[in-house]
Amino acid sequence: MTSKSAAAAAQATVHGYPRQGQGRELKKAIEGYWKGRVTAGALRDTAAALRRTNWQQLAGAGVHEVPTGDFSFYDHVLDTSVMVGAIPARHRAAVDADALDGYFAMARGTQEVAPLEMTKWFDTNYHYLVPELGPDTVFTADSAKQVAELKEALALGLTARPVLVGPVTYLLLAKPAPGVAAGFEPLTLLDRLLPVYAEVLADLRAAGAEWVQLDEPALVQDRSPAELNAAARAYRDLGGLTDRPRLLVASYFDRLGEALPVLAKAPVEGLALDFTGPAAANLGDLAAAGGLPGKRLVAGVVNGRNVWINDFEKSLSTLGTLLGLAGRVDVAPSCSLLHVPLDAAAERDTDPQIARWLAFARQKTAEVVTLARGLAQGPDTIAAALAANRADLASRAGSAITRDPAVRARAAAVTGADVRRSQPYEQRAAAQRAHLGLPLLPVTTIGSFPQTTELRTARADLRSGRIGTEAYEERIKAEIREVLAFQEKAGIDVLVHGEPERNDMVQYFAEQLTGYLATQHGWVQSYGTRYVRPPILAGDISRPEPMTVRWTRYAQSVAGKPVKGMLTGPVTMLAWSFVRDDQPLGDTARQVALALRDEVADLEAAGTSVIQVDEPALRETLPLRAAGRAAYLAWATEAFRLSTAGVRPDTQIHTHMCYAEFGDILRAIDDLDADVISLEAARSHMQVATELATAGYPREVGPGVYDIHSPRVPGADEAAALLRKGLEAIPGERLWVNPDCGLKTRGWPEVRASLENLVTAAREVRAELPGGAS
């Protein structure tokens, strides 16, 4: 196909779409089902209606080929485990008894069985359920979901493309099942898995699929020759099938690198590549690999992970170059639009100037359609759109909203002394022990307590004017007193005020910092039914006034034990926001760090002796390729220290991380120079404690012994067993007892029981230690 005919064939498509609905109907239906208020049939009807709405919106916008199979009740990787029959033995009975309840049991656990481990989807804030595999795993095909959703779309008269997690990525994301040797490599199961994928592909072909997309984002990471050979074998075998649809192998989030020529040579009909951010390097790599002659290229030129409008002229230039490298070029976002909110037009309160700069899923879909038309029919056919786009980009570049000279001058004046504590850890630890007087194995929580219906109602009533500020604040004070009284009665050693006044650990601070924009309807799925509204970082950052001091001071005034000050760290403020893309991330992080440094100083001045600065996103923001990691970790750890290094030696700095693989950032964890770090460990059975010990980590550690992402209540014996396992790696004088994460999403009955069990476990294990008897 010539370049001219490739341009004429250009069409618009997307890899995936937000699942929740405009009013988060899916969340409400699923949680209603869990509570017994919604039937399974009603839940499925809601899901079908949401899928139908999504497809019709996409088709109505001009998308030629809609995705199917990307919709999920909880997680698309969990859906893949069901599709290939990789059901853990502990969940088999539940799945056999009721497929839907068994599915949710794998995701959330039950009182009898633990859920699958959960961790971050590459460097996003989306969480997936980690497949558990072993040498005895037997795969069996179950394509019912994928086939049914394809048929739904075809019945609407739409052209549809099923989207599946590819076999190589699925295995690379998996981990050894409990009881399987840690050295087991799930990728060794590839030859066992490929026939199952072949069966699913045949089923989809029989159901009417012309194309099937196989997502292989794991291949954008640094991969060994053996892993690249496995990818080549996988697509040689799948491409060699006779009874199959045409195959589109997709990657996103970074450049494919060494995997690009492997996939380019594979006997598949198309590739989907990301051409945004660091993945822009795919353009040169594709040319060096000889292009994709005679094949389809789906070009991801619209950033599917951020909310800023596309630069049409730049994208058309990239697309024009790609025309000479492929048989057919289609236009798409860089990845699934799952990672952005649904519709910027719903944000009625946004500054009109800033609104011109924003594109959520619906707007990005329109951008893709516009670019496809410009590519197919020539730029003159989209002249008005190009002119408006140029004006909007110029508006942002020249706006005073984005630049504050005072903030920039302060950031430029930071010195090495600003990012170093005044004393080394050993001296600080002695001062803190004397000041705080804590027992061995001190018990604490991560920060938040349940956000009850009454609290949310009070917040909504305040916003609507149904109650005044004074009544609202009395409600918050009553909640703080209740949370503190429970903790003291339960025997918790370092208290938290429970954060009843906070809506979200990032949004709460963003609403009080200049340079941030909060949304009203910008919901994005984090995991399962957990949705967040990431704020938008539009300009330079500063803190006009204290953000947390008042409520922390109040909590201290009514508590008889230390109360932690609770802040969200600079890297997480960036990672869980839609960050500005017009300056280096490190520069933005330094601005946020300086704002937090002011807050830390004010907390300390108010008498707060323990201050926690959470950085759960430190690992997830790690560049996917090793070449970029050293530079990232340098500015990320410096930003944390800039936030915290100004305190006295006897002020104890905590940090917290959760649901990520920590093994490859252990040096960075040390570089934070926090006095205490708490990390997720319950689902991974204390793996991180062993990793920290092996790395020689010298400070205090709180590996979580209560998995708060499951409704199960861990028994005291279970928590004690995890503590003893932690003590095999971390000495008692440096070990803390805490949940994996905050308790905001849990209910009070399970929280009370779980924390009481934690205290019981801590006392039991403490009594076993020299000098630990109370």
UniProtKB/TrEMBL annotation:
Keywords: Amino-acid biosynthesis, Metal-binding, Methionine biosynthesis, Methyltransferase, Repeat, Transferase, Zinc. Pathway: Amino-acid biosynthesis; L-methionine biosynthesis via de novo pathway; L-methionine from L-homocysteine (MetE route): step 1/1. The keyword Membrane does not apply. Its EC number is 2.1.1.14. GO terms for molecular function: 5-methyltetrahydropteroyltriglutamate-homocysteine S-methyltransferase activity. Signal peptide: none annotated. Zn(2+) binds at H656, C658, E680, C741. Transmembrane segments: none annotated. Binds 1 zinc ion per subunit. Residues 1-21 are annotated as: Disordered. L-homocysteine binds at I446, G447, S448, E499, D614. It holds the Pfam family Meth_synt_1. It is an enzyme of class 2 (transferase). GO terms for biological process: methylation. Catalyzes the transfer of a methyl group from 5-methyltetrahydrofolate to homocysteine resulting in methionine formation. This is 5-methyltetrahydropteroyltriglutamate--homocysteine methyltransferase. It comes from Streptomyces roseoverticillatus.
